[in-house]
Each structure stands twice: as structure tokens, then as C-alpha cells.
Amino acid sequence: MATATETTIAQKLEALLKLQTIDSALDNIKKVRGDLPEEVRDLEDEIMGLETRLAKFQQEIASFEEQISNYKNSKKDSDKLIAKYKEQQMNVRNNREFEAISKEIELQGLEMEIADKRIKEIDFKILNKNDEIASVESTLFERKKDLEQKQKELEVIINESEEDEQKAIKDREKALKSVDPRLLKSYDKLRENARNGLAVVMVKRGACGGCFSSVPPQRQTDIKDKKKIIVCEHCGRVFAGVEDIIPPPEKEKKSRSKAATAAAAPAAE
Ligand SMILES: [Zn+2]
Asked: Does domain 23-178 have CATH number 3.30.1330.10?
């Protein structure tokens, strides 16, 4: 009976750890893609914004040009009026009429001056707007180049990892079947809250593999026993076991002598 429970807990932990390994691999795939998908989206947004601005500028230029043509038309009208007034002046009956018409001529002359002044102002605005357009166009050109580059990079990365990702997704489905449903719930919650995506960890060098808080020796023994599920007191992550401390290699002498022999060999021949 006790053995059966032991096996079950150990198996539960093993299944959970397997799921964690797969999920961590999937996390890594996403990490490699990293900010690229977002960068591509940002560039697309920026390009759209620039194109909108460009269209608006071009509309403004069209409106400026319309204004200029209106002023030019009104100048032509004034010109005609002045010609007409001058003709009328030839046939006036008295001084008063002559003066009145002179006033009108003067007024039209003023209108023409104002129109010229406005045309100059608008020409200047067009010049400035064209500068702005050129600057936006050059930014747009750069961004489009960036986007093309980033899209290519992303495509390569996705192509590279797609197979791994698909395999991991399949493995995950399989692994899920062996995971205790209640444990899965807390696993999902833990992963949601953990910044590194780790819900199941090993005790490494006497510390929690998730938050690095130290785990007392007695607790480590309990974790090793796997008679019950033990979680980290600090971060709540599930302990899957205690990682064996690998003793430092003592073969150094041997390998060195081997290397020496290997190095000596060609010389001897
Ligand atoms: Zn912890």
C-alpha cells in the first residue's frame, strides 16, 4: 500500500516535470522569436501612420494649389474690371464720376496686390510642405526596408522552429494525459504567475530552482522521499526532486596524461 502511494506521487511528479520541460521548451521557442513579431507589427503600424500623413500632406498641397488658382482668377477678374473702369473714365461727365471710378481702380489694384501677397505666402507654404513630404518619404523608405528585413528574419526563425514547436505541442498533448488534473490546475496557476514560466522545479545546490530560497536539509530529504507533494515555502513552486550534486571530476590527472600521450604520439612517429 505504502509503496503504491510512493510510486503514485513519484509518478505524478515525474509527469508534471515532463510537462514543465515541454512547456519550458515552448517558452524558449517563443523567446527566440522574441520581440520580432512585435517589432514587425510596430513597423507596420508606423508605416501606415506615415502613409496617412503623406496622403494628408498631399491633400494640403492640392488645397494650396486650389487657393493659388483662385487668387489668380480673382486677379484676372480685377484686371478685366480695371480695363473696364478705364474705358468708363473716358466717358465721364464730371470730375466726381472720374474720381469715383479712380477709387474703384485703386481698390482693384489693391486687391491684386493682396492676391500676389497671398500667392507668395502659399507658395512658401507649399515649399515647406514639400520639404515635410520629402522627409516623411525618406523615413517611409527606411521603415519599409526595415520591415522587409524583419519580416524575412521572422520567417526564417519561424521556419527553423516550426517543426520543433509542432513536435512540442504534440508531446504536450501526450504528456497532459498523465498529469493529475488537480495538480495541473495549480501548475497552470503557478506558471501564470511565475515570470520564468517555471511551476515545477528541482532543488539545486540546496535552493529552490525557481526562487533560489534555500531549502532546509530535512525538507530536502522529504522531497527526495516523494511521499507527498512538497512546495517551496517562498514561491509555492512544486518540487519535483533534489538534483544530485555532481562531484568534481577527479580524472584530471588521467586525462592530462592521455593528452600528453596523444601530443607525443605524432612526434614519435
Ligand atoms: Zn521557491
From this structure: no
